């Protein structure tokens, strides 16, 4: 698996889909134990995948926070070419 600090959106989405399948497997193993075996292994994979997903989300959150603090308020909107929703601190002069 990709290290959490280097994981992108696609890896995260794939991991989330894999996690959903593992959760479904575990549910089916309770319902139909004769067909769905290896529940211990599925539980181990589920736990490891969950830890990885949480780590990726934490890394992404830290990156967003550092960009937000570095660029200041409204920077995200300026980068996207949109006006900030915050009032401007600069006064505009009216021309006579």
From TrEMBL:
All residue ranges annotated as the ATP-dependent RNA helicase SUV3 C-terminal domain in the record = 12-59
Q: Per its UniProt entry, which superkingdom is the organism in?
A: Bacteria
Give positions of region: Disordered.
60-96
* Listed Basic and acidic residues bias regions: 62-74
What Gene3D superfamilies does the record point to? 1.20.58.1080
What protein name applies here? ATP-dependent RNA helicase SUV3 C-terminal domain-containing protein
Q: Which organism is it from?
A: Sorlinia euscelidii
């Amino acid at each position: 698996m990709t290290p959490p600090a280097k994981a992108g959106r696609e890896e995260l989405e794939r991991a989330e889909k894999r996690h959903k399948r593992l959760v479904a497997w575990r549910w089916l193993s309770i319902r139909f134990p004769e067909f769905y075996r290896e529940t211990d292994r599925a539980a181990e994979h589920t736990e490891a995948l969950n830890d990885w997903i949480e780590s990726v989300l934490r890394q992404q959150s830290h990156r967003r926070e550092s960009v937000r603090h570095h660029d200041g308020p409204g920077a995200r909107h300026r980068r996207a070419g949109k006006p900030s929703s915050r009032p401007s601190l600069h006064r505009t002069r009216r021309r006579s």
